[in-house]
Amino acid sequence: MEYFDVVDEDDKVVGKASRMECHNNPDLIHRSVQFFIFDKDGRIFVNKRSSTKEFFKSQHSIVFGGHVPAGETYGEAVVREAFEEAGVASKPFYMGYFKKRIPQEKENVKVYGFITDKDLTLLEDEIHCGEFMTIGEMKEKIKTETFIPETRQLLKILENHLTEKS
Question: Residue 129: is it exposed, middle or buried by C-beta count within 10 angstroms (0-12/13-18/19+)?
């Protein structure tokens, strides 16, 4: 059984609960990581989630992500998730933080980025398909397709990152 650290609004660990408990009781705040994957030209990998996902089946996303198991750090989780979901083994860089508060769950989320020059190896249970896009192409797709609820928050973090880089 998978367990998560339960945290307060300030991200301090206050307990531990199973994945099922956290997802059946959306008042239990837990941790997750989300991460952008950039190619060497700065394009972002936009993906379509698997139809077997627990939440937001077959919706599009501009990030990959996963939960932080109890006892694991955000940094450890993002490295593990990037390798599991996309075969990415490069070093992550920190991009931001937000509080995800939706009816299905409450998460404190740290956002990272990876740059890769290799083809991605997508985990079928997680990602149906995807492609690298410029930010302009991505924004056009967001207008016509259904994306996960936190896309607006993630887009803001991405745009802040791109502004800081230039």
Answer: exposed
The residue whose two tokens read 């139809």 is 51
The whole-angstrom separation of Cα 160 and Cα 15 is: 33
HSE-up (13 A, CA, CB side) for residue 47: 26
Helices 135-144 & 151-165 angle (0-180, nearest 10): 170
* 149: phi then psi, degrees, rounded to nearest 5: -60, -35
Give strand pairing partners of 64.
35
Tens digit of each residue's pLDDT (9 = 90 or more) over 77-88: 999 999 999 999
Q: What does the angle CA 99 – CA 105 – CA 109 come to, to the nearest 5 degrees?
A: 30
- For residues 134 and 60, give the distance between their C-alpha atoms in angstroms, rounded to a whole number: 15
Q: What is the pTM of this model?
A: 0.95
* Dist CA 159 CA 44 (whole Å): 12
Q: What is the pLDDT of residues 39-83, one digit of tens each?
A: 999 999 999 999 988 889 899 999 999 999 999 999 999 999 999
